[in-house]
C-alpha cells in the first residue's frame, strides 16, 4: 500500500472530526467478502460489535432493527443495491438498557459493480421524542381549544336564555367570559398543570370592594376542569354580592375559606355578612343553576347554597380528583381586576370628535372595536392589521390609539415609539397574561383579552381627558 500523503492524512482527520461532531457512525459493507466494517461510533449507535464482522448477506444489519422494522431495513437496502441509488431512512432498535432507540441510516453503492456499500448512521432518538411530544401537545391543544369553544358556546346559550335584553346579555356574558379567561391564564402560566385556589380568589375578588373581601386557606392546586368551574362559581357569587348582596354596601363583608378534607379533596365556604336582608330568589337564573348543579359536578363533589337573612352562605365540596400536586411552575398571584359590571356603572364613553387609530391583527375583533368606538362617537383610523399598514397611517392626525401588542408574531413597538414621540396616548390590547406580552418602556394602560369593547372605549376616553 502506498504511503499516504500529508494532505490525505489531514483530509481523513478532518472527516473523522466532522463525523464525531455530527454524531455519525460510519460503516462499509464488502459484499464480495460478505463482511461489514463497523466503526466504534457505528457500534455504539447501531448495537453492533466494532471492527470487521460477518455480514451474513446483510442479516447482521437487519437483526439489529426492531422486529417490526426489519422488513423496512431489508427493503430499503435492497432498493439501494438494485437501483444503485442512495437510501436514507429511520428505524427502531431495541436498547439493551431498556426501551427503543431511533436510528437514521444513509447509504450509497460505492462501486460500479455494486459490491461495496458505504454509509453512516445517527442516533435520532431525541429528535423523534421531541416530534412525538410536539404531536401530543398539538393534539392536546386542539382538544383544549375545542373544549373551550364548546364551553363558550354553552355559556352564551345559557346566558341568552336567562336574560331579557341585549345589553344585559352582553354585560353578563362578557363577565363570565372574562372569568374563564382569567382561569385559563393561570393554567397557562403553570403549563396547564394546575391553578391555585388562592390565585383564583385573587383574580375574582382582588379588584372589587377593597377591604371588604378576604380569602384564606392552605395551598391547593386544582385540575384545569376544576379551576374553570371554581373560577366561574366565584365570579357568579362576586357579581351577585356586588349587585344585591354584602358588597352592595360599604359595611358588607365577604369571607372565603377552604380546608383540606381527609379524602384528599377540599371544602370551600363563601360567607357574606353586613349586607342587606337576604331572601331566597323568586326565580332561578343561570348563576343559581351553575352553582347548584354544574359546579358540584365539575368539582367531583357537591354544592349547597343557603339564603340566610344575614347573608348568603355557599359550601362547595370537591372530591380528590379535583386536586393536583403542586406544579413545577407556579405563577405569581394575579393582579387585581375590576369586574365588568363596575366599569359599566360609569356609563358609556363619549369619544365625539376624537380620531382613534386601531391596530389589531384579528379581523373580527378589529371590526368589533371599530363598531364600538364609532358608536361612542370616534372617527376610526384603520383598522390596521399588519405592522406596515399601521406605520403607513401614522402621518395622519391621531388623538389616541388602541394597539394590539403582537401583530402576527411581530411587536407593535415601532408604532408605539412613533406615537409616544408625538405625545399621542395609546392603550395596549393583548392576549398575553400577566407575565408579559405588552411592550415594556411605555406608560400606557394594558387591557387583556377577552375584553368588553366598552371597556376599551372607557380607557380611551380616560386617556383623552388626561391629555386635554
TrEMBL record:
The EC number(s) this enzyme carries: 2.7.13.3
Entry keyword annotation includes ATP-binding: yes
Annotated positions of the 4-aspartylphosphate modification: 404
Positions of the Response regulatory domain: 355-464
GO molecular function, one term: kinase activity
Transmembrane segments: none
Ranges for domain PAC: 87-136
Record's keyword terms, sorted: ATP-binding, Flavoprotein, FMN, Kinase, Nucleotide-binding, Phosphoprotein, Repeat, Transferase, Virulence
InterPro entries per UniProt: CheY-like_superfamily, HATPase_C_sf, PAS, PAS-assoc_C, PAS-like_dom_sf, PAS_fold_3, Sig_transdc_His_kinase_HWE, Sig_transdc_resp-reg_receiver
Ranges where the PAS domain occurs: 11-84
A Pfam family reported for this protein in Swiss-Prot or TrEMBL: PAS_3
Catalytic activity: ATP + protein L-histidine = ADP + protein N-phospho-L-histidine
Record-linked PROSITE patterns: PAC, PAS, RESPONSE_REGULATORY
NCBIfam families: sensory_box
Protein name: histidine kinase
Amino acid at each position: 500500500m502506498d504511503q499516504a500523503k500529508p494532505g490525505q492524512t489531514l483530509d481523513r482527520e478532518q472527516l473523522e472530526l466532522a463525523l464525531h461532531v455530527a454524531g455519525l457512525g460510519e460503516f462499509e459493507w464488502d459484499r464480495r467478502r460478505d463482511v461489514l466494517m463497523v466503526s466504534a461510533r457505528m457500534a455504539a449507535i447501531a448495537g453492533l460489535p466494532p471492527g470487521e464482522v460477518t455480514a451474513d448477506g446483510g442479516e447482521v444489519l437487519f437483526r439489529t432493527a426492531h422486529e417490526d422494522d426489519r422488513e423496512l431495513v431489508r427493503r430499503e437496502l435492497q432498493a439501494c443495491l438494485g437501483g444503485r441509488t442512495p437510501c436514507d431512512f429511520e428505524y427502531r432498535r431495541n436498547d439493551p438498557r431498556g426501551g427503543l432507540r431511533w436510528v437514521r441510516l444513509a447509504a450509497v453503492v460505492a462501486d460500479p459493480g455494486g459490491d461495496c456499500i458505504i454509509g453512516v448512521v445517527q442516533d435520532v432518538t431525541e429528535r423523534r421524542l421531541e416530534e412525538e411530544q410536539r404531536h401530543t401537545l398539538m393534539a392536546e391543544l386542539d382538544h383544549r381549544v375545542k373544549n373551550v369553544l364548546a364551553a363558550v358556546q354553552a355559556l352564551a346559550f345559557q346566558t341568552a336564555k336567562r336574560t331579557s335584553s341585549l345589553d344585559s346579555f352582553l354585560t353578563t356574558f362578557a363577565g363570565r367570559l372574562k372569568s374563564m379567561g382569567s382561569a385559563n391564564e393561570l393554567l397557562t402560566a403553570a403549563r396547564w398543570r394546575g391553578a391555585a385556589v388562592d390565585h383564583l380568589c385573587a383574580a375574582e375578588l382582588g379588584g372589587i370592594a377593597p377591604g371588604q373581601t378576604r380569602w384564606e386557606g392552605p395551598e391547593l392546586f386544582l385540575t384545569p376542569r376544576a379551576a374553570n368551574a371554581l373560577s366561574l362559581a366565584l365570579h357568579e357569587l362576586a357579581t351577585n354580592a356586588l349587585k344585591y348582596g354584602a358588597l352592595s354596601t360599604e359595611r358588607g363583608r365577604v369571607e372565603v375559606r377552604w380546608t383540606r378534607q381527609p379524602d384528599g379533596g377540599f371544602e370551600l365556604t363563601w360567607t357574606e355578612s353586613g349586607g342587606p336582608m337576604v331572601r331566597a330568589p323568586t326565580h332561578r337564573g343561570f348563576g343559581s343553576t351553575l352553582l347548584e348543579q354544574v359546579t358540584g359536578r365539575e368539582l367531583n363533589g357537591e354544592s349547597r347554597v343557603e339564603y340566610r337573612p344575614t347573608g348568603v352562605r355557599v359550601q362547595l365540596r370537591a372530591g380528590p380528583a379535583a386536586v393536583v400536586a403542586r406544579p413545577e411552575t407556579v405563577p405569581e398571584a394575579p393582579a387585581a381586576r375590576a369586574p365588568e359590571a363596575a366599569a359599566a356603572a360609569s356609563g358609556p364613553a363619549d369619544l365625539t370628535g376624537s380620531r382613534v387609530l386601531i391596530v389589531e391583527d384579528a379581523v373580527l375583533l378589529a371590526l368589533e372595536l371599530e363598531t364600538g368606538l364609532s358608536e361612542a362617537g370616534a372617527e376610526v383610523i384603520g383598522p390596521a392589521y399588519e405592522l406596515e399598514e399601521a406605520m403607513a397611517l401614522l402621518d395622519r392626525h391621531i388623538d389616541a390609539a388602541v394597539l394590539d401588542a403582537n401583530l402576527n408574531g411581530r411587536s407593535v413597538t415601532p408604532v408605539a415609539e412613533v406615537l409616544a414621540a408625538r405625545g399621542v396616548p395609546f392603550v395596549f390590547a393583548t392576549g398575553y397574561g400577566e407575565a408579559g406580552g405588552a411592550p415594556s418602556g411605555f406608560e400606557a394602560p394594558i387591557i387583556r383579552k377577552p375584553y368588553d369593547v366598552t371597556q376599551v372605549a372607557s380607557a380611551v376616553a380616560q386617556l383623552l381627558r388626561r391629555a386635554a
